[in-house]
Amino acid sequence: MRFGCCGSLVAAGPDRTGVEIAEQIAALGYDYIELPLAEMMALSDGDFAALRRQVAASGLRCETCNNFFPASLRLTGAEADPGRIRAYYTRALERAAQLGAEVIVFGSAGAKRVPDGFDHAAAWRQVVEVTRAAGEAAAAHGITIAIEPVRRPDCNIVNTFAEGVRLAQEVGLGNVRVLVDFYHMVCEKESPDILRRYGAEYLCHVHFSCPAIPEIDGVRDPARISGLYEGELDRRGWWRTYPSSPDEWDYGAFVRAVKDCGYDGRVSLEAHAPAFARQAGEALDVLHTLFG
């Protein structure tokens, strides 16, 4: 397998891309960097060219991008504008292709969140349509769209791997598949066995982290944080972080399911890491121990 880091949740620079970690993770032995597309879309042409040079100088490639759509661009509800959406993903895919990205992660919780009072079935159809349209455009660049299920407190549509598979099936394109994020799977209490059922056909990318769910009365229950948005979890110190030991959490069932479905692709760390250099080194050791 290949191991990388997402820049977005550890970003310290003003552009919020996290590109500044590229040289560090290359030196540590990571295989690639995963950068946020929405943040890169906010860059001028000159600043984007500088980012590309910085990635190239590290010796790594930006093989994957997350944060496909910004929260400000509505994908569901009455305010969703197909013309604006098309213009955005057309240009975003061009930038991703210039970076050499092969996979774009489509979580975009804020953009696809269903507005209060809007028909959920209608919103689902909107998500199917935009995923299909973006997938068709991505195919021209040789890019795969990885649908990312996100836990319910952060988004109210496409929350489980099973729902991601349903979306991919309805889209019906070979380059639209599904990502599994260990943190979101834990929070949704979804059994990793779903990967054995659908992973061989649909799994195309993995996000990994240590769920910092608090232990109360000897139990770590995701239900205890089910009403808290990620910003509040971060404030309380209960948000996901980089793994520091293969024994700190019951990772085994998830890792076995990933391997059992035949997956041998990329695994990206996506979490906060306040002591980045130390934590990134520890986390890479954990990834090698768990995934081989």
Describe the structure.
Helix content is 43%, strand content 13%. It is of the alpha/beta class and 292 residues long. The chain has a single domain, classed as Divalent-metal-dependent TIM barrel enzymes (TIM Barrel, Alpha-Beta Barrel), CATH 3.20.20.150. α4 runs parallel beside α6 (120-139). The mean pLDDT is 95. GO terms for molecular function: isomerase activity. Pfam families: AP_endonuc_2 (PF01261). Residues 23-287 form the Xylose isomerase-like TIM barrel domain.
Principal-axis shape = globular
- Low-pLDDT runs of 5+ residues are none
Largest sheet at a glance? 8 strands, parallel, barrel
**Rg, alpha carbons:** 18 Å
Q: In order across it, which strands form the biggest sheet?
A: 1-2-3-4-5-6-7-8
* CATH class wording: Alpha Beta
User: Would you tell me the structural class of the helices and strands?
Assistant: alpha/beta
Number of helices: 12
Keywords: Isomerase
InterPro entries: IolE/XylAMocC-like, Xyl_isomerase-like_sf, Xyl_isomerase-like_TIM-brl
Pfam family, one: AP_endonuc_2
GO molecular function, one term: isomerase activity
Name its key features.
Xyl_isomerase-like_sf, isomerase activity, eight-stranded parallel β-barrel, globular, isomerase, alpha/beta, 43% helix, TIM Barrel, single chain, 292 residues, Xyl_isomerase-like_TIM-brl
